Amino acid sequence: MDMCYVWSSITILYCMIIPLNAQWETLNSGIRGRLNSLDFINSRTGWLAGTMGTILMTEDGGLTWDELYVEQDWHFQGIDFIDQVTGWATGWDSNYEYNLILKTLDGGESWTVQRKVKNVHFFAPQVLEDSVVIAGSSTMILKSETGGSEWIDISPSGTNLYLSSVTFLDRDKGIASGSVEENSTWRGIIFKTYDGGKTWKKKTIPEFSGLSNLQMINDSEGYFIATGDTGGTFLYQTKDTCNTWSVISTGEYFFDNYFILHTGNLYAAVYDTLYHQHLLKSGDSGETWENIISLHNWRVSKMYLNDLDQGILLYQMLGWEGWGESSTQLIMTNLFETGQWMTRKFSYTFEDAYFDDLDNGLVFGGYFIFHGPTGGDIFTTADGGITWSLNHSFPAYVYTSSFPAKSVGYILLRDWRTYIYKTTDGGSTWTLAHHFNPDSIGFEITINDIAFRSEEIGYGVGRFWSQDSAGACIMETSDGGRHWDFLWTLLDKGEIYYELSALHLVDKTIWAVGPRGFLVKISPPDSFRIIEPKTDLPLNDVFFSDAQHGWIAGGYWSNEDARPILLKTTDGGNTWNIDKNVPYLVNEIFFRDNRQGWVVGSDSTGQGIILATGDGGESWSIQADHLPGSLHGVHFIGDTGWAVGSEGIVLKTDNGGSSWIDGHSEIVYPRAFQLHQNYPNPFNSNTVISWQLAVGDQVDLTVYNVLGEKVATLVSKRLQPGNHRYLFEGSTLASGIYYYELTAGEFKAVRKMILLR
Among residues 63, 93, 127, which one ends one of the domains? Predict the structure, then answer.
């Protein structure tokens, strides 16, 4: 059975942001936390918020995203902005002890706590106007009519209630939906209020086990998702404020979530019986549907669209919830000029990269959780990494690749089994060549690495099992991966088991390495040699630039111990020397000759590292360090190279990365210093001043009148690189023209603003 799923075409365009003075371009640097909420105030300005204090803002419809550096490590759950500067949020404190209601007056850069409550998990807040805010949860509804200074509990009375959504049409009329347990059975429930929550009218709906995601277009028309007694989730429409409703069908699909653009115009994220996700669009209130995108490892968790068919989709891996703060996720933007969905920013675990030439290449990886979900994807590019297409999703982790000829390649996929897929068109299409377990020769086999000498002849290394034996193995195929046979095996000895983790082909020789310093050399025609270990550490990668010069990387990091190792030979493996000048865990080695090479990996804190050598490893220089995640793969064509790793890191160099200077950068820098025009301008009392820093420095932001007299010092402290905002309060100043000046190191800029009363 061919288990390769073909996605609809999705184009990914990276924001080319360059670390200062560096020749490794950061094409993508990941997302710090798990994104939970999306809100737009118009077609261009919007925010994404999530855990670990993550706030992303766009002012160009999602083409670029700025990370706002919130000082507190809050975990944002929901956001609602009423204009470019004023917004509300719900979330948790850093210890998940209190649920918080927060407010910002500077576009999300800083927040103040308006209310904190224990044992309550609020939905996204609803702001009816600046002074009226509703914060609903599964068990409580709070309301403020004083801009957050005072709160009243307007929760409906009852027991065994579970609310899933709360929406107010104005300050008096509101609707809440959810479920109630009656006689050990869950039933759908709707509450209505017409006096601002003082009293609620209850309606139980026995044909549903629960209602959620209630969205109202106007006072009477709206939609909600309901779960039937027999399972499945369906979308319903009401035209009389939930007194009656009618079902909206998509055929074989079930509803996950949806977005109402306006009356009759709907977008829906749905799934089929295999839990494959699809994005559908209807222009006639759900009578007919058009499929926009089909994805299989991903779900649309949040969406926003507008009348220009522009939009933002937040995708997250299926089954990933609950597996940590960070998440595998894509932010996708639709450009109405091209009609293509483009991923502008994402978090992902990349395992390796391969390029046919300077333009055409691919990156791949995925996620694997022990006793949990597994999936992998391939991203392809035709312009050297500037734009990417994500059009293949697999039900297993994409582990490694081997390309013996231009456009002809193989990938190794892993879950609890092993799969080999093949492409003959550079990665545009993939077909299943072979899957192990059970294998045709009667053994259980796990393959950890593959390498092909030609389009037909290839090798794999790993471990095998049978009823009466087990051990390390090297497998061989001579028909393009369709059939595999043992080339070499080594049986376990007592409690010592053998396994091979990686291999490399040089001329007609096979080199393979594994745990406990295990090193094997196979030379033609039938020379099999186990080389005595130089170390008892696990060996993870091996690379030979020619028959004489080779390198092996291995070791491990742990909380108690750091034991990386890098070995080198100059005599074809007869002797090996330990390089004591590389105190990093190396994940992959790449040499283009016996002198110039690169290694990528991580330091003891898990931050990514790139090292380069020009003398065959006698000495190494740091080209990039303190990257937000470990690097797993590196590939070069001449001086052009790509490095990829966890957190979605993708780096590129056009000159071998030789002039990295700022080696202790921990973030992705803007291109330059810049002071933006304040907004709004002219303004009455309040305005936001924003700027960006290319490096961290002492920053002074000062306001002057037309006479050059200082009237206020707004900021005077050291700030980190990135984008910053300050809400300027001018209520004590007279109407007129003022100037604000920003200095940061040698950078200085002045702009004019006008205060009108």
Answer: 127
Whole-angstrom Cα distance, residue 668 to residue 508? 43
- Report, in angstroms and rounded to the nearest whole number, the Rg of the chain calculated over CA atoms: 29
Rounded to an integer, what distance in angstroms lies between the CA atom of residue 255 and that of residue 237?
Answer: 13
Cα(301)–Cα(283) distance, integer angstroms: 22
Residues pairing with 457 in the sheet: none
Which of 158 and 113 is assigned the larger pLDDT?
Answer: 113
For 294, residues 6+ apart whose C-beta sits below 8 A from its C-beta are: 7, 8, 276, 277, 278, 279
Structure tokens at 384: 């050297």
Alpha helices in 188-307 (DSSP H): none
The total number of structural domains that make up the chain = 3
- By the 10 Å C-beta count (0-12 exposed, 13-18 middle, 19+ buried), 1 is classed as exposed
* Residue 616 dihedral angles phi and psi, to the nearest 5°: 75, 20
Residues 6+ apart with CB under 8 A from 195: 172
- Residue 357 included in any domain: no
CB 227 within 8 A of CB 175: no
Q: What is the CATH number of the domain that holds 462?
A: 2.120.10.80
Per-residue tokens: 611:
């090292």
Residue 555 neighbours by CB under 8 Å, 6+ apart:
537, 538, 540, 563, 564, 565, 585
Cβ(412)–Cβ(461) under 8 Å?
A: no
> Are 448 and 576 within one domain?
yes
Q: What is the pLDDT of residues 579-617, one digit of tens each?
A: 877 889 999 999 999 999 999 999 888 889 999 999 999
Q: What is the extent of the structural domain holding 82?
A: 33-107+121-127
| SS3 per-residue string spanning 598-643 | EEEEECCCCCEEEEEECCCCCCCEEEEEEECCCEEEEEEECCEEEE
Q: For the range 269-274, what are the long-range contacts, defined as Cβ-Cβ under 8 Å and sequence gap of 24 or more?
A: 269/299, 269/300, 269/303, 271/299
Q: For residue 310, what are its two tokens? A: 């522009």
Q: Which one of 94, 127, 160 terminates a domain?
A: 127
**Token pair for residue 680?**
């709004």
Listing DSSP states for 56-113 in one string gives: EEESSTTSS-EEEE-SS--EEEEEEESSSS-EEEEEE-TTS-EEEEEEESSTTSS-EE
Q: For residue range 195-244, what is the model confidence (pLDDT) as tens digits?
A: 999 999 999 998 899 999 999 988 899 999 998 766 678 899 999 999 99
Q: Buried b vs exposed e over 370-395: b needs ≥16 C-beta within 10 Å? A: eeebbbbbbbbbeebbbbbbbbbbbb
Of residues 518, 528, 437, the one with CA closest to residue 471: 518
